[in-house]
Design goal:
Length: about 325
């Protein structure tokens, strides 16, 4: 059974006058139909750029996909024309952005935008579309939806605007909903509610790829987790397995100091990351010479039934995984 989405060796370069670096550096993962996959990692780890690369919404330039394959529903979509990508985005892969402004057009009423999304998806416009738009607004928790449907985005508060953006994303009944955690626009409680809303409102065959900082959200929603660090994936697996036996030293650090994520957020304050070998080695308590240079460490499978794998030299066939795993349970 082939996955709905598979990403294989994705590299996305950011190129500005001042700097040039791979924001995403060889990322591979997949999402099955109906599956919820959460991507966790600090700011600048490449989560957003990964998701934006899928449907070509990374700003081009400065961002450029230089390598890798993206396959959606059996079809390569990397290198697809802007026209093809636009039709995929309107219909099969919907995005909910960190900043709802990105999804909302200031000159149209929210009702027009929801109906437009339904129409792209091939549903007919007209009175029934309006009725459906109102019911969608109600579902996402907009009070007085039958009045507010004729208002413009600026007439809504930040949290309500994010709800409207979710309604637009759902209007097309996408196969894959890609949501970048609304960290900036709304407070934490609202955020958690919005994410629950996504789960409630999508049916079982809608897959969700969610970027979040909130490990509680991950625990309650995700089927699988992808942990990113420095533009690479360091660990991936089913949520229960990764939470019960986090293997990569970065994943362990993340779970140990749960607030860690927000405290650690300022990448620039901690200087440049290595651009080869294991990107985490400057901060890793188990680093050794083998962690330097060359490609990112291979992925080793810890549990092949569960499809849990980790990129760390200590999990190689002649490594000593216990050294890393024991330490994590000692605390
Ligand atoms: Fe630490 Fe080396 Fe493993 Fe990276 S590969 S996590 S530096 S031990
Ligand atoms: Mg981001």
């Amino acid at each position: 059974n082939e996955p709905l989405l598979s990403v294989d060796g994705l590299r996305t370069f950011i190129e500005t006058e001042r700097e040039q670096f791979p924001a995403v550096d060889g990322v591979s993962f997949s999402v099955d139909r109906g599956e919820t996959v959460c991507i966790v990692g600090e700011s600048g780890s490449g989560k957003s750029v990964t998701c934006e690369s899928l449907t070509g919404i990374v700003p081009q330039p400065p961002a450029r996909i230089t390598d890798g394959q993206i396959t959606f529903d059996g079809k390569r979509i990397d290198g697809a024309s802007e026209r093809e990508l636009r039709s995929i985005r309107g219909d099969r892969i919907a995005h909910v952005f960190q900043n709802p402004q990105q999804a909302l057009d200031p000159v149209y009423t929210v009702g027009d935008q929801i109906v437009e999304a339904m129409t792209i998806h091939g549903q007919r416009s007209g009175t029934s579309a309006r009725e459906r738009a109102i019911s969608l607004l109600r579902k996402v928790g907009i009070p007085r939806a039958d009045d507010r449907i004729d208002e413009y985005p600026h007439e809504f508060s930040g949290g309500m605007r994010q709800r409207v953006a979710i309604a637009i994303a759902l209007a097309a009944d996408p196969d894959l909903l890609v949501a970048d955690e609304p960290t900036t626009a709304v407070d934490v409680t609202v955020q958690a509610k919005l994410i629950e809303l996504l789960r409630d409102l999508t049916d079982d065959d809608t897959a969700i790829l969610l970027i979040t900082h909130d490990l509680r959200v991950v625990a309650s929603l995700a089927d699988s987790v992808v942990v990113m660090y420095g533009g690479t994936i360091v660990e991936r697996g089913p949520v229960d397995t990764v939470f019960s036996t986090p293997a990569h030293p970065y994943t362990q650090a993340l779970f140990d100091s749960y607030d860690g994520l927000s405290r650690r957020n300022d990448r620039s304050a901690r200087g440049e990351l290595p651009s080869d070998g294991c990107r985490f080695r400057a901060e890793c308590p188990y680093a050794e010479p083998a962690c330097e240079g060359g490609d990112q460490p291979d992925f080793y499978t810890l549990d092949s039934d569960a499809d849990h794998s980790v990129s760390c030299v200590h999990f190689s066939p002649d490594g000593d995984p216990e050294r890393v795993l024991d330490a994590s349970t000692e605390v």
